[in-house]
């Protein structure tokens, strides 16, 4: 990788001042070297971006790549039914190849719609396949195998022994954490309290401190889940996580729809991070998270599409629109303006993942994770003196993403993917889901 | 226009049985002549549609083409502020050319995202420009000039004398109703009770009966609006419309977010039609309409994106997703399944417009208003034994629309518009909004 010069873009830096200007960006290797209104610097490669918008790549803080194959197989169900009737049996049927193509299908969708970094939760087995897909495609990801050593309703093929779950997690961590120039990291991923023993959660607490890696889990998504935790562990979901010492700045909680005051204070006080998944929360009828209140408490909140079967897209543009619209209807029309939402989708997500020094904004020294949007179409016009934040959050769609760069590498150029063969992935994803469905 | 044969599509008929099959459709002139699994009939033109999905074109039951130019100029405001501070001054600044390009911009977006029929409300002046754009582009539309003869806060340039408003409406009706093979129709369009005298509304009641045309207005969108009507007319919004005799099967009410029991019963009993605009209702913080209840009462409900400045798209895929997701989070995950939503977006919309015998489903004898979707991409895969309704409602996006036919005429083919020159419309829309903003 040498130098790349992106010329004459409208650059939305997402820096501390939310600066937007027309100019050039010089990339050297995997990092942004220089910004300027007109850089007269020779570069090995020049990308003419006149009329296009340059943004930091989107950061999604809650994704299940292993579920992409299940898109459309679990519609119109509530969380616990959705898990027990559809998702767990399908996850249990997964094989090495199906996990790989599930990840490839999801990554193809993610890159095409401008997401360059994800926090991902895999299934119990075959997690290597997902890491392989991430490594090959060039996506930036923190991922881990799901941990499930408890719960009578968990299918036998997914129910783990505690020691095995921990050992396999550590083995994966040691192999993949920091892989590919640090582009890939490991996170311990206990599914949720319902499916984990206290012993497992406490081991995860100690191991995540030892290795200094994230813990990625679900919490306070659904009222049934909360009642189940309360009955079994004798306290509210987040209170329990704090009680056993898991609440720390390394902990990332997906959903957090139903938090009481005490839980919000725990999250704030312990520096716990929150991943807001508005599409999933609506489709599974989970509820509407109190995002403005969390942001007001200076809690770091990112956005995620969750898995394909509960969304049914992995599209940050959809999640941005929803995250704004839902808070307006509950808190009034000035709540969650476009700027707030776009920060959540970029630097906010980076902060959730602890990567704010590396990604999330266009600034010298940061990783070159960049997307170019072509908004020269009816749905994003007029362009005259248009507010760029409104345009990206309220008008743009996935089809507007033109070029995507991750870690300085161009993974999509003029809507053509460079690291994924679409026809192979579409064909093999059909073959894989057919095989899994035949096993049920 | 001669015969066109569409071959080997997955045909979602949206007929009474919601039949879906793989086969061919023969079009003769402006109408569908025949469906079959393999039609061996010579045609002047053959469209190979293998691997694509054929649907009736979407029907949007509430649009303001004249506002498309204002996209992004009125974000993060509540309805009455939004109108008084931004939309009315901009509408007052409109000229003949700006109304034309506003309509062209909106129609370009609508056709590209699969909408073939709209119910449209224009502004006070220059409505001919919008009809000209509709006529030229080939869109199917019911439209009318807005009527505003009351209200102190209405800008002088929009405030009409009652007689003038009525005379201009009738003149437009006599020229445009039934134009272009019946593709264009006229609807009386009093803006809402707040901006109309009782005399005007009563004249509209009589004239709409005399000419047998629709009456298109806003009602029960916002709590401030309802309080205003109650204070001025002494009763609830829909009760008042019924009280003055306007509630009939010809009346189409946009929004209906805040209906009490009496108003719902009036709508049901009088055969009034409802246009649900979930995107607009969220962005303007209006609320969430009780659509499942209205559908349960056999009220005809259609979907509409409303105007570009309150959405900020005119995209039926966005409205479909939202209409499903919002009811799930309020009524549970099985509410508003994909089939229900897709009916609302097609035949349901046609019923709202009284066009159910002509459009809204793929059946012999109906108008050839058809769209082909190409879902061969990551975000709509796997395709193996996929539920087509889920795929279209929960996964598809505007970029998947490949070809659009209205009244037997191909207006977009392989994503290329045939009746609109994009670069001219984009350039002129920027010039027009610049001119309007300079007048404010």
TrEMBL record, chains A, B:
Domain Amidohydrolase-related per the UniProt entry, residue ranges: 53-411
E.C. number(s) listed in UniProt: 3.5.4.28, 3.5.4.31
Family, similarity comment: Belongs to the metallo-dependent hydrolases superfamily. MTA/SAH deaminase family.
Free-text remark on how the cofactor is bound: Binds 1 zinc ion per subunit.
Protein name (database record): 5-methylthioadenosine/S-adenosylhomocysteine deaminase
Cofactor(s) it depends on: Zn(2+)
The keyword Hydrolase appears for this protein: yes
TM helices/strands, residue ranges: none
Keyword Zinc recorded: yes
Pfam families, alphabetized: Amidohydro_1
Domain of life from the UniProt record: Bacteria
GO molecular function: 5'-methylthioadenosine deaminase activity; metal ion binding; S-adenosylhomocysteine deaminase activity
Binding positions (substrate): 91, 161, 221, 306
UniProt function note: Catalyzes the deamination of 5-methylthioadenosine and S-adenosyl-L-homocysteine into 5-methylthioinosine and S-inosyl-L-homocysteine, respectively. Is also able to deaminate adenosine.
Swiss-Prot/TrEMBL keywords: Hydrolase, Metal-binding, Zinc
First-level EC class: hydrolase
InterPro entries named among the record's database cross-references: Amidohydro-rel (IPR006680), Deaminase_MtaD/DadD (IPR023512), Metal-dep_hydrolase_composite (IPR011059), Metal_Hydrolase (IPR032466), MTA/SAH_deaminase (IPR050287)
Chemical reaction(s) catalysed: S-methyl-5'-thioadenosine + H2O + H(+) = S-methyl-5'-thioinosine + NH4(+); S-adenosyl-L-homocysteine + H2O + H(+) = S-inosyl-L-homocysteine + NH4(+)
Gene name tied to this protein: mtaD
Binding sites annotated in the UniProt record for Zn(2+): 62, 64, 218, 306
């Amino acid at each position: 990788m040498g130098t790349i010069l992106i010329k004459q873009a409208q650059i939305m830096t997402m820096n501390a001042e939310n600066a937007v200007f027309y100019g050039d960006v010089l990339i050297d290797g995997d990092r942004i070297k220089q910004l300027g209104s007109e850089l007269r610097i020779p570069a090995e490669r020049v990308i003419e971006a006149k009329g296009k918008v340059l943004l930091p790549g989107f950061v999604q803080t809650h994704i299940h790549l292993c579920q992409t194959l299940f898109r459309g197989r679990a519609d119109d169900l509530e969380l616990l039914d959705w898990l027990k009737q559809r998702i767990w049996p399908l996850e249990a049927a997964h094989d090495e190849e199906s996990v790989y193509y599930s990840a490839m299908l999801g990554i193809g969708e993610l890159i095409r719609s401008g997401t360059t970094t994800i926090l991902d939760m895999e299934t119990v087995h075959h997690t290597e396949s997902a890491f392989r897909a991430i490594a090959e495609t060039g996506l930036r990801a923190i991922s881990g195998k799901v941990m499930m050593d408890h719960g009578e309703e968990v299918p036998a093929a997914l129910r783990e022994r505690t020691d095995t779950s921990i050992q396999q997690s550590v083995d994966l961590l040691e192999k993949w954490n920091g892989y590919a120039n640090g582009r890939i990291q490991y996170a311990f991923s206990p599914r949720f309290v319902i499916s984990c023993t206290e012993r497992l959660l406490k081991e995860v607490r100690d191991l995540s401190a030892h290795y200094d890696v994230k813990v990625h889990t679900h919490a306070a998504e659904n009222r049934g889940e909360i009642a189940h935790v309360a009955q079994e562990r004798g306290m509210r979901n987040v209170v329990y996580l704090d009680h056993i010492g898991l609440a720390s700045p390394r902990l990332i909680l997906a959903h957090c729809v139903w938090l009481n005051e005490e839980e919000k204070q725990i999250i704030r006080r312990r520096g716990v991070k929150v991943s807001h998944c508005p599409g999933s929360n609506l489709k599974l009828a989970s509820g509407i998270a109190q995002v403005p209140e969390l942001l007001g408490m200076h809690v770091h909140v990112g956005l995620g599409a969750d898995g394909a079967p509960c969304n049914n897209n992995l599209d940050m543009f959809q999640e941005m629109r929803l995250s704004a619209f839902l808070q307006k209807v509950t808190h009034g029309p000035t709540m969650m303006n476009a700027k707030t939402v776009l920060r959540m989708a970029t630097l906010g997500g980076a902060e959730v993942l602890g990567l704010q020094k590396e990604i999330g904004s266009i600034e010298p020294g940061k990783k070159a994770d960049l997307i170019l949007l072509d908004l020269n179409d009816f749905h994003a016009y007029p362009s005259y003196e248009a507010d760029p934040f409104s345009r990206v959050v309220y008008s743009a769609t996935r089809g507007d993403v033109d070029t995507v760069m991750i870690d300085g590498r161009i993974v999509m150029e003029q809507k053509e993917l460079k690291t994924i063969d679409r026809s192979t992935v579409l064909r093999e994803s059909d073959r894989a889901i057919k095989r899994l469905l035949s096993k049920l």
